[in-house]
Amino acid sequence: MIQNAKVNLSEIATEMDNPDTASIDELSTIDMLKIINNEDKKVAAAVETALPIICQVIDVTAKHLRQGGRLFYIGAGTSGRLGILDAVECPPTFGTEPGLVQGIIAGGYDAIFRAVEGAEDSTELSIKDLKERGFTNNDVLVGIAASGRTPYTLSALQYGKELGAVTVSITCSPASPMEKIADYAIVVQPGPEVITGSTRLKAGTAQKLVLNMLSTGAMIKLGKVYGHLMVDVKASNSKLTERAISIVMKAACCDRSTAQTALDESGGNAKLAIFHIISGKSIVESKKLLEAADGYIGKALRHSMKNHNQ
After folding, report:
1. Which among 89, 124, 132, 291 is annotated as catalytic?
2. Could you give the C-alpha distances from 146 to 65, 154, 198, in angstroms and in order?
3. In the prediction, which pLDDT does 188 show?
4. Would you place residue 170 in the very low, low, confident or very high pLDDT band (cuts 50, 70, 90)?
5. What's the CA gap between 224 and 47, in Å, rounded?
6. Residue 186 forms beta bridges with which residues?
7. Separation CA 109–CA 105 (nearest Å)
8. Domain-by-domain residue ranges, the chain?
9. Is it true that domain 9-221 has CATH number 3.40.390.30?
10. Under DSSP, is residue 114 helix (H, G, I), strand (E, B) or coil?
């Protein structure tokens, strides 16, 4: 069981003083912004150093999702909100079921909008939250915490590990307890914050970039992208409907009328419409071929062409 211990801020990289921002309160607005912008520039370079481990996480996540598992993000405060943000964007962007990628925050729904006192210090609450969602060893658990020491998130990773699930940590301070527990430890070190300890800044940006990579990379691996187009986009509003038409036109190199007709026939399924137009197969046959190719348009087209030439 994870024991709460007194936090020593001197051991946490994100709590260090930043000499480059020591007098930021005395600067003109434009000079203040230049400093913030210069600090932000350090984030992408810090994420780059973690690409090898991020690559491994994407591959193992895609494997588990393909086998019926789910992806869970869990964290407190800013970290928890970032996980929720990434999770809720997956259904409209990639056409996933809402339960495939889930974000859990310490304190529940109310904590999305305001701090829930004491929630992040609970070592039992995260386990309860995971159990309520039926978390299993076939799922992937990503714990997010800038310090790598948040009790709520730390206990979640410990619980996931005890179940035999894949556990991942995303932290911004090296040699943290979360890093030591997780199967895959993503450590991104953007350096001290502009405002000491305000990890919604550089650390939050770093976490967001990593989460973008994890979900996007996994979805690409699942065939939800063709070329650079999000072909599983869910046309749930007028903007996304227009985007679906544009995606079909680009992918299938066709005019708007052809794209619109194919989308109507496919029930708004852009991927199916694209394959139908390019292959010349019926909607029914196109659907069968795509399913046989695990949803990959390119793979289905190659199989279709190979069979045609035989």
Report:
1. 89
2. 26, 12, 10
3. 97
4. very high
5. 24
6. 170
7. 8
8. 9-221, 238-309
9. no
10. coil
- The pTM score is 0.90
Strand-pair category, 71-75 with 101-105:
parallel
Task: Measure the CA–CA gap between 217 and 211, rounded to whole angstroms.
Answer: 10
Predicted confidence at residue 116, as pLDDT, reads 82
- Show the tokens assigned to 158: 């410990």
Q: What is the pLDDT confidence band of residue 118, given thresholds at 50, 70 and 90?
A: confident
pLDDT of 99 reads 96
227: tokens are 């070329």
CATH annotation of 238-309: 1.10.8.1080
State the catalytic residue, choosing from 11, 15, 26, 120.
120
Per-residue model confidence as pLDDT tens digits over 286-309: 999 999 999 999 999 998 776 655
- Cβ(141)–Cβ(127) below 8 Å: no
Helices (H) and strands (E) in the chain, counts: 12, 5
Q: Please, which pLDDT band fits residue 15 given cuts at 50, 70 and 90?
A: confident
Cα distance between residue 208 and residue 188, in whole Å: 11
Phi and psi of 130, rounded to 5°? -70, -40
C-beta of residue 113 within 8 angstroms of C-beta of residue 78: no
Active site residue 120: yes
Looking up tokens 């304190």, which residue turns up? 107
**Which stretch of 2-6, 84-88, 129-133, 304-308 has the lowest confidence by average pLDDT?**
2-6
Question: Distance between CA atoms of 169 and 157, rounded to whole angstroms?
Answer: 8
Maximum pairwise Cα distance, the chain: 75
pLDDT digit string, tens, across residues 262-290? 999 999 999 999 999 999 999 999 999 99
**CA 36, 41, 47 angle in degrees (round to 5)?**
125
Does 132 participate in catalysis according to the annotation?
A: no
Closest among 221, 269, 226 to 245, alpha carbons compared: 269
